Structures are given as C-alpha cells and as structure tokens.
Amino acid sequence: MSDNRPALGVGMVGYSFMGRVHSQAWRSVGAFFDLPVAPVMAVLSGRSEERTAAAAASLGWAAVENDWKDLIRRDDVDIVDVCTPGESHAEIAIAALEAGKHVLCEKPMANTVAEAEAMAAAAERAAERGVRSMVAFNYRRVPAVALARQFVAEGRLGVLRHVRAQYLQDWIVDPEFPLVWRLQKDKAGSGALGDIGSHIVDTAQFVTGQLLTGVSGLTETFINDRPTAEESAGLAAGSAGAESTGHVTVDDAAVFIGRLSGGALASFEATRFATGRKNAMRIEINGSLGSLYFDFESMNELWFHDHTLPAEEAGFRRILVTEGGHPYAGAWWPPGHGLGYEHTFSHEVKDFLEAIGTGTDPAPSFADGLRVQRVLAAVEESAAGDSRWTPIPQ
Amino acid sequence: MSDNRPALGVGMVGYSFMGRVHSQAWRSVGAFFDLPVAPVMAVLSGRSEERTAAAAASLGWAAVENDWKDLIRRDDVDIVDVCTPGESHAEIAIAALEAGKHVLCEKPMANTVAEAEAMAAAAERAAERGVRSMVAFNYRRVPAVALARQFVAEGRLGVLRHVRAQYLQDWIVDPEFPLVWRLQKDKAGSGALGDIGSHIVDTAQFVTGQLLTGVSGLTETFINDRPTAEESAGLAAGSAGAESTGHVTVDDAAVFIGRLSGGALASFEATRFATGRKNAMRIEINGSLGSLYFDFESMNELWFHDHTLPAEEAGFRRILVTEGGHPYAGAWWPPGHGLGYEHTFSHEVKDFLEAIGTGTDPAPSFADGLRVQRVLAAVEESAAGDSRWTPIPQ
Amino acid sequence: MSDNRPALGVGMVGYSFMGRVHSQAWRSVGAFFDLPVAPVMAVLSGRSEERTAAAAASLGWAAVENDWKDLIRRDDVDIVDVCTPGESHAEIAIAALEAGKHVLCEKPMANTVAEAEAMAAAAERAAERGVRSMVAFNYRRVPAVALARQFVAEGRLGVLRHVRAQYLQDWIVDPEFPLVWRLQKDKAGSGALGDIGSHIVDTAQFVTGQLLTGVSGLTETFINDRPTAEESAGLAAGSAGAESTGHVTVDDAAVFIGRLSGGALASFEATRFATGRKNAMRIEINGSLGSLYFDFESMNELWFHDHTLPAEEAGFRRILVTEGGHPYAGAWWPPGHGLGYEHTFSHEVKDFLEAIGTGTDPAPSFADGLRVQRVLAAVEESAAGDSRWTPIPQ
Amino acid sequence: MSDNRPALGVGMVGYSFMGRVHSQAWRSVGAFFDLPVAPVMAVLSGRSEERTAAAAASLGWAAVENDWKDLIRRDDVDIVDVCTPGESHAEIAIAALEAGKHVLCEKPMANTVAEAEAMAAAAERAAERGVRSMVAFNYRRVPAVALARQFVAEGRLGVLRHVRAQYLQDWIVDPEFPLVWRLQKDKAGSGALGDIGSHIVDTAQFVTGQLLTGVSGLTETFINDRPTAEESAGLAAGSAGAESTGHVTVDDAAVFIGRLSGGALASFEATRFATGRKNAMRIEINGSLGSLYFDFESMNELWFHDHTLPAEEAGFRRILVTEGGHPYAGAWWPPGHGLGYEHTFSHEVKDFLEAIGTGTDPAPSFADGLRVQRVLAAVEESAAGDSRWTPIPQ
To answer: Smallest CA–CA separation between A30 and chain C, in Å?
Structure first.
C-alpha cells in the first residue's frame, strides 16, 4: 500500500461503551474519508489486565497498557483518546497535552468548572505548540445537526426567538436499577444534567451560534437509594451483596430555562425518567423566517419550516439528511440509506484528524467544553438557590 | 315534537371568534347528545347594533340586545355565555350569577387574581342557590385529553415524574401584524401567558389531577411596537391611520418550570412566535408505568406508552380517539372519522347542560379558574423578580 | 331577519349514518358560508313512522314522510337528498329529477352500471331544465384533497407517474360481526369495492384530472358466513335468532392496478380487514416535479414534496390545511384549529347550493358517478376473469 | 492475540457500492459478535488493476486479483463474496461453489430463472459437501424486519389477510440521468423489478413465512432514451461523448398484485420514479389479531398494532428496535442509539459465518433466491400478456 500520509498512533484510555464506539470510528474512518493523516489503532489502556487484553483483541488495538501514564509515555502514541468517566478527564487530558499528545476527550469535559478551567488553559498552552484538543460532543456530527447549524448560519431562520431542547431517556425508571457509577457524584460529577444535559447545551449553542447568558433551574432525584451495583459492590470490601443499597448522589432530572446571547428564550430538560423515550435528544429552534426540529431517535431526519413560503404551502418538511450534498453523508451510502449512532463518532474522528493534519484547531475546543461546564454549574447553583436567575460567565 | 325536557334559554355575550364557535356548539349539541334539558338560542348581545343583528341572523340567535345588562335581565335567558375579552368577564359573570343565571365563562377566567377571587366567591354563593358556573377550558373536552385524564386516574401511568406542556402558535411573528386587543394589557390581562398558557396550565392540572405548587419563569416581548389595528385606530379619535404604531403591553412568550403536588417536575411554554406551529397545544406526561403524549394539531390522536409491556414490544402507540367507547366520541361518527376544534365546545356545552339538568356542579369550576389565575400571576411575579421560585397559594 | 335570498326546502330520504351527517351539514352550512340561497330543513322521510319521527326531532327536520314518493311530491321540497343504501338510489334520484327537484345522491351512485347510466341520462335531461344533480363523493371536499387537486392543476407535480390509493378499514375483522346490509349484494351492490373503493377511484380521478383507462384486479371474501344481523333477522320470518348465519355476498377486499389517461401507473386497495386502520383513505401521487400524500386519518394535513428545490433542503412537508387561503378552511377557524369528518359534508352542501343558486352544474356530476361505476364494474370483471386487463369505456 | 478460532479468508469480487458496504461488514463484524470463525479480508478482485488496488488499500483488503477466476483458485480464500452486477452472478457463484468455496451472492441472485436454477442446483450439490451458500437479501437483517418475522411466527398477527409492500426510490426521475448499467437489460436483467422489487418479494415471503402463488402485473418505462453514461460511453468505441443517447431496456417501475399461500391478498410496487421517496422499502401486514408496518427510511422502527387489546387503547405503536432483546440490536449500542444501512450487512455476514462455523445451511438459500426469481419472471410474463394471472411454480 503506497500511502505517503503520516501515520498517527492512537492511544485510547477506557474500553467501555465509549471505548467501543470510538474503536469503531478509528477502525472505519479511513475507508470512507480521504484523510491527510493515517490513524493507527496503537494502544488501549485499562486497569484490569485481563479485560483490557480481551477488549484490545476484540476491538482491534495492537497493544495494551494497564496504566494510562504508560500509554501517554509511548512514542507510538500521537493521539490520546480519553474515554473514562469524568472524574479522571482533567488529569489524563492535561498530562497528555503536556506530553505533546493531541487529545480527544469525552464529555462532559470535566466534573467541575475548576477542572474544566485547568483543561482549557492546558489546551491553550498546547495549541501554541501545535498540539490539538477537542471535546467529544458527538451530536454536532449528526449530519442533520450539522445541517441545522448550516441553515442557521445562512440566515434561513432569521432572528432566533426560541430554543426548546430535551434529552429524554428512561433507563433508570425502575427503582431496582443498580447504583452504577453514573449515579455517583464523585465519579460522574452530576447525573442527567452533566451526562445528557451537557449535550443539549452544547448542541443549542453550536446550532444557534450563540451562548446562554443565564439560567434558572430545578433538579430532582426521584429515587434516592438503589441496590449497589455488582461492580461497585466489588470495590467495597465486606459488601453484603445484592441486599445492600447505596445513595444516589446525582440528579435524576434537570429542567431549566434561559436566554441566549441573541435574545432568544430557551428551555431545556434532561432526564432519565421519561418512560418510553430511549434516546430522544431533541431540539427545536424558531426564528422569524423559519424553524428547525430534530430528534435523535430519528437521526437521519431534519424538519425544516420555511416561513418565507406562502402560508398555503408552508409546513415542516422532513429532510432525509442522506444526500451527497449533506454534511458527512456523501462519504457513505446513496440517499435514503441512513446512518446510525456510531457514525457521529466516525465524523468526529475525521474532523479531528483533518484538524491535526492541516494544523488547525478543531471544534468543539476545550474552551467550548468549559463554556458548557459553566452552564451546568449555573443550573446547579440556581437549583440550589431558589431557582434564582444565574448569569453564565463568558 | 313531544319534548318534555325543560327548555333553557341561552344568552350569549360577544359574537367574535368565541361567539361563533359557541354558537355552533349550542346549535349542534342536541342532535348528538341526549340531554336532560333543551337549550334554546335565545339572545345575543353586542355593543354594535348593526353587527350584532347580522351576527344573530347568521349564527341563529332569536333575539338581540345591545347591552349585556339587558340580556341578563331577560326572563327568557337562563344561561349566560360570556364570550367577551377578559376585561369584562368578572363584571358580567358576577352580575349574571347574582341574577340567578347559570354562567359559562370563557378563559382566562379573569385578567387578575382579584377578579378571579371575586368570581369564585360569587360562584360559590350562587351554587348554594343551585346556580351553576363553569370556565370554558375547552381542551379538557378534546376526547384524547379526556382519555388521557382517564388513563392517569386509572393509574396506568403510575407515579408521575414529568409534565412537559407547550402551546405554540405563530400568528404574530410578522412585526407588521397589528396591535389587536389581545396585545393590550388593559383588555387581555396578559399575552401568550393568559391566552394560551392558561390552557396548558389547566390541562396539566386536569390530566394529572394535581396542582402546581410553585413556578420559576421568564416572559418576553420580542416586538414592542406594532401598527395600530384598524379597529383600535377607530377608537382613538384623530388616529393618523396606518402610519400610527402603538405599544405592545403584554408578553409575546412565557417559559416556566415548576413542581406538581405529587412531586413531578413540570415545564411550560406559551408563545405566539413558534414559526410554523399553528395551534400546537401539546402535553407529555411521563410516569413510572407509562407515558402519554398529545398535540392538538393532531387532535384525534393520543399517544400512549405502556411501560408494563416487555421492552421488546413496547413503544408509543397512536390511539385514534374515535372509538365508541372513548369519551364523547361515540356520539358522533364511526371509528376513524375524526372530530374538529369546534366539537370541544359541543362537549363543553353538553357537560354544562347535564350538570344543570342533574343539579350538580360542573368542572372546571370558577375555583379551578382561580387556581389557574394564581399560576399565571405567580409566573409574572417570578419573571419580574429574577425568576425566583414563587409558590402558588392553594 | 332580513333575508332576501330564495329559501330552498330540503327533503332528505334516510336518517341513518349518512342522514345524520347530512343533517349536520344542512344545519351548519348557513352559519359559515355566504350562500346565494337559504336551505330549509323541511322534510325527512323513512319507512318506520316512529323512528323517522324521532330522528326528525333530534336532527331538526320540520316534517316527516313515510314514503319517499310523498316527499318528492311536496311543494316545500326543492332539493332531494338521497341517503339510502345503493339499491334505491336510481329509483329515487330519477323520480326526483323528473319531478324537477335538485338531487344530491350518496355514493356509490348506483349498484350497477345500468342503473348509473339511467341516472346519468336523467341528470342530463334534468340539467337542460335547470335541475341540478350531484354525487356525494364527500372526500373531494376535504380541504387537503381540494388543495391536492389545486396543486396538480397548477402543474406543481409535473407529469404524473404514480398514483397509490388505499382505503383501509377494519370493522369486520371479527368473524362474529353480523351480516349487515353492507355485506349483502342485493342491497349494497358490492362490498369494500363499492363502498370505499369508489371513494378512492373518484378521488384519484378528481385529484389527477385524469381517468382510469383500464384495470386488472383481485377481490376476496375472507369470511363467507356471518351471524345474521338482528335487523336482518327481523326481516326474515322464522329466524332462529342469534344462532342463524347468512352468506356474505360481497367482497371483503379488492386490490387492483391500472393506468391513467396521462400515462401514470396506479394501484388501489379497498379493504375492511386492515386491522388497526380505521378510516385510512390514502392517496399518494408522484410526478416529475413533486409528490403529494394524504391520509384521512390525519385529514387536516397534506404532505407535499417539491422536487424543484435543491435536494439538500427538499422533503415531504406537512401542510396543515387550515389557513385562510386554503379551500373551504377560511370559513371556519384560525390556522391550526382543525376540521372533522362532518365538515366535508358542509362543504359539499355549500358547493351544491352555490351551483343551484348560480345556475351552474355542480361536480361530481352523475356522469362522474357513472365513470366511477364503470371502473368498479371493470374491477369485478377482471377479478372474475383471471385478472385480465379490462379497459374502462369512457 | 490468543484466538483459537479457525480463520477463514474472504475473497470479494467487485468493489463498487456493494463491495464498499460488504467491506465495512467484514471489517466490523468481529468487534461486535462472538463468531465461531474469524474472517480475514484476504483478496479483492476487479478488472481494473489500478482501481482495484486503490479500492483494496482504502477498504482494507490484503491482496488483489484482476480475474475472479484467480481469486477462486487461491488457497487463502475460503469464502467468495459476489458483489458484481447480476449478469456474472451465476458463472462466478457456480465456479466458486464447485471449487469448494462458501458463497455469499448479491441479489437479485441472477438475471434469469435458468441461471437461478443452475445456481440453486450447484448450491444443493455443494451443500452435500458442506459448502455453504447464501443470497444477500440484506433487508432480512434489519432488526425491525427480523422482529416482524418473529411476531408473525409467534402468531401475534393471527391469520394474515393483507400484505402491502412498496420499494420507492426517485433517483432516475430526471430524464438527463445517464444510462447506467442498472438501466440495461443485458447487465441488470430487469430494472426496478429485479433491483428493488426482488427485495420486497423476498421480505414479504420471509416475514409472512408464505410464498406467492401467483401474480398479475404491469411494468412501465417512463423514459425510453437517456444520455449515455460516461462509463458506458467509454466502452463504446467512437462514442460522440455527452451528445449520445442510448435506449433504456428495463422497466422504470412495476406494480403487481398477488396471493400468498396462506390466503392473503398482496400488492407490490417497485419504482425509481416516486419523487421524494429515497429508499422507502415498506411493508405492511394485516392479520386477524394484529398488524405490522415498516419503512426502511425509518429503519430502527417497527409499528405494531395489537388487535387483542381493548379498542379504546389499541393503536399502532412505534417500537424502537434497539433493545438488548431485539434481533441483532443487543450487540451494538444502548436502546435508542440507532443502527444504519450498513449494519444489515454486518448481520448478514455474522449469520453466514455462524452457519459456516456451525455447519448449517444459512438462509436465504439459493433455493430462496430462485423462488424470488420465479416471481420476478411471472410478473414480467403477466405484464407482457395482458396482466393475466400467472401462477408461480413452487
């Protein structure tokens, strides 16, 4: 294979849900996109020797490390892909950047604003040395969401009046669902708010090209105690097994309202208790000239209302975002042959590699990740303080 | 016609949009429902002699009055149907109740909490004398909404976790749309909040069987000055015609979040700036055992997710609410032959007449109307006070 | 009431399903449309003295006759509205036309082509004397269907390539559903084919402005014997009650394919066995420049794909057919406040009265009804003859 | 990597659309499914030396051959994956089977019934020697379609009454679209009928578990002459370039009706002229106890109507086919994180490899492919013979 492109070794930390989908992206991206660099699935790191080795074999990683610090030290690693829970993002990402590795970091970028600030500062320093960083807000890379951004940027919606965003799931409705790490504040930072609320905050800011200026919010934990998860139980010596329960220390749901820098009213809802909604990441935007609607459960569709048409023939139209001219879509299949969840990661990795190859800074940057973190913190502050209006520092 | 039922004369005040649709209800109800009393379209009142006469002729009212006080005085009027703007509701309704007339009053019941309190007190006094009163929250009488209430009441949704309600319209998106009475605080009380926000507040409380305990809100007027409407211009002597503009004194949109007495989180949005949404009165309710979704733009459908089914066969199902066993529907056409907007008023009038005929108090009562008014006031108070949490007095 | 318009007395024959909905149309039309003539609900006729009287009282007809021939003879009857089963259409309609009465006749216009030919001939003779006739294909008066016709007529779809029409119901899926008159050939002429197939044939020809030139078809009766309906049992002396069964003599379903005069391929399906489909009268039309889709179960919506738009922003759009500029819709409520099944009849009656008042021939004419009848006959002929291609005489 | 599974070398013939998607399947399948054998992407063959090498590099094939006969001869090839146009399927597949290679063959299996018969015979002989063969009707592997099959097999639909299948595309609506190989009978066998009609015939027979017993059909070519495609032009010496046109020798659309072995009526439509429909592979099945609906444009959804529920709560429900318990879905992502077009091929390859590994015959077999071919031939025979009923030999 006569490939003159520079090869870039990827080292991935973590092999769980995010690790699996990132692996599929690294594995596939080169077959569909002409990239200026050639990614090599070099090293996977994870704490459990046995499980990491099995994951590497099944996912296609060439080598294994059991300490992420060793992964960062390797010469065959040019890119560090951080797929761990939020608690370790800051430490890993900053260390990697300081070691001169490009960093792709899962979201939410951090568990606290302080961590996020440190990460953004590290990213800024690294950028001066040509080291790139990016937060993995993958929903920006849904073709329909990218098309929505394009429509707004082109002025097709006019002056924006309303943003209505929801991220609805239902996987912990059952009180017997165990106390996994995502329900523990020390590991996950927050609950639905950080995990999925961060996505709709980022998506809203990305698609509108505006920032939230303030929020007023409520959070709620509907079920306060849950059976200890086996995994967690294993960590706690002397656990009494299935009988034991633990305290949920994060929100089950968050609702908040706010204003965008351009004057629009916004409302947000993130919940894991919307029975029957599986992964309904939704956003509707209403402007003076038109509106857009998206629901990830039908991820290949963007609904667009063109208000400049005569009223008698206007209406929300279902654009199947699978045309050759649509963002990302042309690299894949003919019109009507839809993409799936994992493709958003292939697109993310493609954009990241292109930025590295062309020496530009990819988006969303760690500064963008910090902006989202500040919104999450403001929601928590408002919720803790009588829902009072809480401005977002820019 | 051998009809032994007592005939009840109806006197309607106002013949505009609400007057037209109420007329269709009074005209049609008897052909579809077996009523204990027989309504007679007796008198229509309106200030303009000529226009009231024309309206009466076209709508089928037997007589005309040009002062609602004269209408109330008439012996052939047993029921007063108040279809005027909110500013006059309290005066007319209280006078009618005191004159011993049953009163059906359009929503929002009043423009202020004080008015609403006076109305509720009058209604309570009247009820002791067997005089009935009801607020015209017609959306309760959409068969799909009534079915939703039934499902919640039967426990099909379990413990309620979320209410998500929106009333989205777009009729004043154009800045050239004139300053009609609905945009003037002295006539309408408030804007989107009172006009359509009141509907979703009532519907949410009706379907859940719970009350809002507090709210945090934002309101916004996007377009502050508008061309003076011809009608209004006519009232203002010396108006300079189409050139003149006036100030919009109500909200264009309101968003608010709150909590229900049973512990659910709720979010609400009422707007006249949701481009492309024409009359999207929507509500979704998520409970521990199931969920419901309704959108008035598809008013014959109720979406129900039964979470007690195996996950592999569960999903939101589209119940076409046109079966014989569905609320109200059996009186009309065979399954699949849908109803329209006006039918909600026929159902309202039917329930009102049945309550009168059977000597019971109809719902929603003026006390219910007061409860809604208190929510609206709390939203405005919160919006004016830094979105602070504002409890609703019960 | 100073009404100088000529009053026209209406005499309706039959008071069952069609009679009820026609009554609502006659009752309501005047309040919503400015008509050149004023309809008066003069006489209702039905064979059962008691039931006809009760129906007249409840539906609002001023007088009663127990023989339709007496109804036709009355001077206060100017219009005869034929709402009986198909077997009596020809006799009543022809007699009424010969007596100089305008005739509105329910569909299918007749049970045989011969009857339809006699009716069309009678209508043609009557028209020469200014006597009007119309077939009640009410679906033409769904605003969305009328808008579809308008789009095709304006060339918005270009050259038509495909028509895909279905009328799906499920009311006789249960084998215990009784042998009502609609399942008996001597009364109904045919089954799903004539009852609902006639609607989609008419709608397809109306919307496209083209005629079917030939068909190839299959029909099927899935359940051959059913319990005798009580009503029918009553007619059969000595009936053994619920135990008795009778033979279904009509089709349960018909599927056929054909060609339109403009070259499009067409496919049709009419069935009462489409479990879960209640009244899904659907039509999709694909042309070189665009497509349309309609489903009566969502009767206020027309879906339009404009293929002249760039592919990246094209898609089927949901036009809510409730705007003031839409056919019929402006007479009713504001945008987004939908209409129901019965409104199609109000529109039908309005068009009929306007034609009478302005001295023009309304559509669909009896000649149009005959054209539909010929298609139905061709389908039956093809189905009986090895599905062979069967041309439609024009 | 301690992998004790037998490695099986794959040799793929063709690298165009089907070759690209098959490559993604071979590349990904091992990371998501526990397979009894380990596929190795060994050899790619194609006629153009340069293009084949480039495709192999980009798609990840280890070696290249420029004659498929050489590919078949190789010892490192255990499986032959036939991704060429239909004209060469029979020759390649039979040669491969005779050489003892397992064969996965794209659809339609052949261009004629004679070829298909020869292939089925070769497959039968090969099976006796433990050599496996399968036709790539990938839509059977859409999780929603597999779930549909499961529901029917479990009796959830009762006795089947109707099948309504359509495959609607619009990619050749423009008369300037060139004369590609799919529009030439010598290469493609037929047009929409074989290319996409074959899919709905197979899907209908698969989901119902029944066979079509006869058909009556129409076919049409709307645009008879098209610009010669550059590729084709290149093959024709002395071509005058863009000016030249060639004759379309296949159908643009086919509509046909039929009967299934269990008594249901069926209707089918395959077209490339359904403007606005991009890849609408749809099927609805109505049975005595329930109904199913699927549209590939929303491929992660299966709509199910359970007619055994009370009518008041029944309706088509949208099952998001992404649960762990759904066919194939559990191997991928959490609920609500949908799959795309290419996953159907990963599932196909997984099932094929499992059959090889466990020594069983995979489905759909070449005998199944022959059955579909016979239906296509019957449709053409009927269309050519006055749409006469044409039985399908079983």
So the answer is: 25
